[in-house]
Amino acid sequence: MRIELVQEVEAKSALLVLIDGSGTTPKYNAPTGENAQIDSAIEHTPFLLKNGEAFYTVGSKGQALLVCGIKKNGLSDTESIRRSLGKGLKLARKHELKEVTICLPHKEDPDEIAMIQLAAETCNLSLYEYKKYLSDKGNPSYLDRISIVCSSNSKDLQEALNRGIVLSDCTNITRDLVNEPSIDLYPETLAQKVQELGKSFGFDVQVFDEKQCLEMNMHAFLAVGKASTRAPRLIVMRWIGGSNMEPIGLVGKGVTYDTGGLSLKPTASMLRMKSDMTGSAVVIGTMCALARLKSKKNVVGVVAACENSVAGNAFMPGDILQSKNGKTIEIRNTDAEGRLTLADAICHAIREEHANKIIDIATLTGAVKVALGDQVAGAVTTDDNLYKSLSEASTKADEQFWQLPINQDYRDLNNSEIADISNLGRDGLAGTISAACFVEAFTEGLPWLHLDIAGVAYNHNNHDYIPKGGSGRVVRSLYHMVEALD
Ligand code: BES
Ligand code: ZN
Ligand code: ZN
Q1: Whole-angstrom Cα distance, residue 342 to residue 274?
Q2: How far apart are CA 168 and CA 123, in angstroms?
Q3: Ligand in closest contact with the CA of 256
Q4: Residue nearest to atom 3 of ligand 1 (CA)
């Protein structure tokens, strides 16, 4: 699929128009000559087009029209624009249109740059499909070209288009990784894929096998992967954007399947545990975006990839493990495995890669779904500046986060009498926060932000521009955040 900017509409292309649903004076960015046709289609609509509604009709010259409603005066509600546009594009596919030209709400708006980026993002995000394992992959020629009408061929607008395409492409890389079943995506194959991505986009990748991880004393990480026939891999990605600064550390949970280990999960909860590597997929997608957009930042991504499986040699509740940074950990539940892998991965990012701050991203607790649902990710930090950066970045991406509290009472939930720390908090008490406190114990006092994405990682239903399956959420926020950090 090609996405490009145009100032003229080709006669054979279908038109997609976003209109303010007040029904009176729709404003849209269409080239003269097309307006009358669109106006007449809207006028003949026997209902008031509401926010989020879209319909398909044929204009007077036989041209296909997709009319999508947005909120009255709702141009600042960019999430609603993304949703309407996503609906319209899916309608275009349903009607098997080959080419579509998007007429954005308005031409004169000073923020045309942001609107073009948003439109480009939405094209790739809403039309994403995961068909790798389907025998019938459908007709690939539908919607092979999307044009976006803009006011000039300025460099700024071209760059906005490119940014939108790259950010959504990289989000789709994340989605592909999450959607791939564990029979094919396991630590070794994940590492191979990252190596390929690094080669394609120009970031450096180093992979460590089990023996090398053992030499680096990563006993907490290795314990989790011990019972699997698929050996763990530590994957390190580096993007050096030019400055002499120490890198920002992005650490993603990379459990390629989580059975729960000996503290086995019930059948229903295990079903979607192929997605327990979403944190790593988010880091990988973000590294691709940083490299493709030639970020000026220095960033290191660390993923301790393993499979939490069951066998006679599995790690056991009651075990005491020594992590890479020397702290001992009492295992009280082998299903609280993500924090063990993060502990060693974070230590690696700090001690071997000299990260000066840590952002960890993980499908860490079911409790975050109970607290915040599946649209809002949980954030825990002791650094107000990091949270502020996240908050600003998430506005650009139209993604949602909510900060949860952290204090000594929560940290004490992880106290153990026989080891330095326990991997389990107290039943029913703030599971997301106690998990975050465990992770914090391995950050060595550096600025740190923790994102629990267990709720938002996976979509159970199709959403206007986020299809069922791996959602790809957080990649765009994380990219914007890294770009804004010093
Ligand atoms: N991978 C799960 C968390 C999860 C739950 C991700 C639902 C996606 C959807 C994690 O490893 C886990 O099992 N956490 C336990 C922790 C508990 C044992 C303290 C949980 O949330 O039940
Ligand atoms: Zn688990
Ligand atoms: Zn897990």
Answers
A1: 18
A2: 8
A3: 3
A4: 365
Neighbouring residues of the ion ligand 3, judged by CB less than 5 Å: 255, 258, 276, 338
Parallel/antiparallel/unpaired status of strands 328-330 and 421-422: parallel
Ligand 1, residues at Cβ distance < 6 Å = 258, 276, 333, 335-338, 363-367, 424, 431, 454
Closest ligand 1 atom to the C-alpha of 337? 11
Determine the Cα–Cα distance for residues 99 and 38; give it in Å rounded to an integer.
Answer: 17
Q: State if pTM tops 0.70.
A: yes
Apex 185 CA angle, 183 and 189, nearest 5: 120
Distance 339 CA to ligand 3 centre (A): 8
- The contacts of residue 123 (CB under 8 Å, 6+ apart) are 1, 3, 89, 102, 146, 164, 168
Record the tokens describing residue 65, joined without a space.
Answer: 């029209």
DSSP string of 79-128, one letter each residue: HHHHHHHHHHHHHHHHTT-SEEEEE-S-SS-TTHHHHHHHHHHHHHHHT-
Give Cα 414 distance to the centre of its chain. Answer: 29
Residues annotated as catalytic are 265, 339
Is the sign of the CA dihedral 79, 80, 81, 87 positive or negative?
A: positive
* Residuewise pLDDT in 10s, the chain (486 residues): 999 999 877 777 898 988 765 554 445 556 555 666 666 666 655 555 666 778 888 877 788 889 888 876 666 788 988 999 999 999 999 999 999 999 887 655 668 899 999 999 999 999 999 999 999 988 777 899 999 988 888 999 999 999 999 999 999 999 999 999 999 999 999 999 999 999 999 999 999 999 999 999 999 999 999 999 999 999 999 999 987 899 999 999 999 999 999 999 999 999 999 999 999 999 999 999 999 999 999 999 999 999 999 999 999 999 999 999 999 999 999 999 999 999 999 999 999 999 999 999 999 999 999 999 999 999 999 999 999 999 999 999 999 999 999 999 999 999 999 999 999 999 999 999 999 999 999 999 999 999 999 999 999 999 999 999 999 999 999 999 999 998
Ion ligand 2 — residues with CB under 5 Å?
A: 258, 335, 337
